Amino acid sequence: MLNNTTATMLHLKQLQAQMIKLSLDRNPFYLSKIIAFSAISGDLTHSCSILGHIDNPTNFMYNAIIRGFSQSKQPHKTFTWYTKMTSLGLSPDKYAYPFVLKACSRLFDLNKGKQVHCQVIKSGFLMNSHIESSLIYLYASCGELGFAKIVFEGVHERRVVSWNAMISGCVRSGKLVKEAFDIFHQMRLDCLESFDKFSLVSVTSACANMGALCLGKWVHGLVFRSGFCAVVPLCNALVDMYGKSGSLDDSCKLFDEMGVRDLVSWSTIIDVLAVHGCGGRAIHVFEKMEMVSGVVPDDMTFTNVLCACSHGGLLREGEVLFDKMIHGYKILPKIQHYGCMVDLLGKAGRLKEAYELIKEMCIEPDAAMWRSLLSACMYHRDFCLAEIVADRLKSLLDPDDLGDSAILSSVFASLGRWDDVEKLRRGARKIPGRSFIEVDNVVHEFVSKDISHPQIDEINLLMNQMVGTVTLLGFS
Questions:
Q1: Where would one find coiled-coil regions in this protein (predicted)?
Q2: How many domains does the chain have?
Q3: What is the mean pLDDT of residues 182-202?
Q4: Is residue 54 part of a domain?
Q5: Which among 136, 157, 178 is the end of a domain?
Q6: Which pLDDT tens digit goes with each residue over 442-452?
Q7: Which residues face 434 on adjacent strands?
Q8: Among 11, 61, 143, 226, which residue has the fewest nearby CB atoms (within 10 Å)?
Q9: CA-angle at 171, arms to 249 and 106, nearest 5°
């Protein structure tokens, strides 16, 4: 009955009221269903409230809430409920561990993930395929490819889901993008099952992150030959890949050819147009989405269109969209939205307004916001406000962020604060730069001062020749 009639939370609460009247509100079976539905529907407050009044809760009830939080915007609360469950003497089962590990992955919490891994081993669930895949994804996401490979090598039957966990985890880490491609090629050789749409989404994202257009086109061909052209998430990934690889025309062409477009599709093409500096076109696409498609924008869509306004210096349009987001769609601004508005006001020279907007925010400003305003202050030569903003940015300074250190050092030098300049230079810790280049469908990775590339001698020789040629032409 619950499965058939509770289409919304309103229906669920009406049914729950009837259950109370009929004295069925203590039935464990019905309570489990209500908790599970509420958690999946996103009303975790309601689920937690019900569970808090149950004398003898079951594993199923706790698993439903753990699952809900692991997929929510508050994944850290997964651990709170996991601890509550174990403190009651309930042993986590094979259904609980994947969601706890998912929360670890989303938070990049490697230490907690290792603790859960130990508990999995003690509980005897290590051979469970869902848990194995969750562990692989966790370690790969956190950049621990060695640990991921250890778990992967121990998988008794490597199905496509295990390979996908390795590939998607590497892509998500941001540090193992090239390795994701190597694993995909190995998968095509070793895996008895064929790759699926999830494999291709991850590999497409890897191409986007590397800006590897030729490889991306090869993946697009693979998508076409595999019959996945109508898969919306895959098309979205391809639109993003072409945009990030510099091919705006291909990105727009693919978007126009999509038979079905969801919210992510529209948000992606708006983001692509924003990155390419096409602010006017991005706003036009946003308006078309509102009027023609019937798709309702979310906070991410507004982030993308406000970024488009920011890149294009479209202050008036940005103000209208910001107001529409708050009053038209009742979306509370997040740090990204405020950041776009501060950037827009700063570029327009309305520095006092930008500063007042930051002070009136109900959320704490981040370093990126102060950095944006500081750059605007220096550009418009408002040194009084620049000094105030620089001190705010200094209080949030990350020692590993050389960009902020360089900006602050330059500002303090302009203000004659040489002691602060010296402190910043002494405290900075240089992290080697990393870059990718695609040559003949092969992606090469370079790290600052690294000599491990197999063609390093030829590279150095060519560089010396280039420097010599430039010097002969009179450049220093």
A1: none
A2: 2
A3: 87
A4: yes
A5: 157
A6: 666 666 666 76
A7: 447
A8: 11
A9: 120
pTM of structure = 0.78
CA distance 337 to 321: 10
Contacts of residue 463, defined as CB under 8 A and 6 or more positions apart, other chains included, come to none
Please tell me the distance from the alpha carbon of residue 139 to that of residue 165, in angstroms, as a whole number.
10
Backbone angles phi, psi at 43, to 5 degrees: -90, 70
CB atoms within 10 A of CB 276: 18
Q: Is there a domain that residue 443 lies in?
A: yes
Last-in-domain residue among 89, 123, 157: 157
269 occurs within a structural domain: no
Q: Name the residue range of residue 128's domain.
A: 1-157
Q: Residue 474 pairs with which residues in a beta bridge?
A: none
Instruction: Transcribe 115-141 into DSSP letters.
Output: HHHHHHHHHT-TT-HHHHHHHHHHHHH
Residue 367 has pLDDT above 50, yes or no: yes
What is the three-class DSSP state of 54? Answer: coil
pLDDT digits over 51-88, tens only?
888 888 999 999 999 999 999 989 999 999 999 999 99
Within-domain flag for 119: yes
Residue 9 CA: distances (Å) to CA of 20, 25, 36, 39:
16, 17, 12, 10
Amino acid identity at 441: N
Residue 14, domain CATH? 1.25.40.10
- Inter-CA distances, 306 with 87, 245, 280, Å: 47, 22, 11
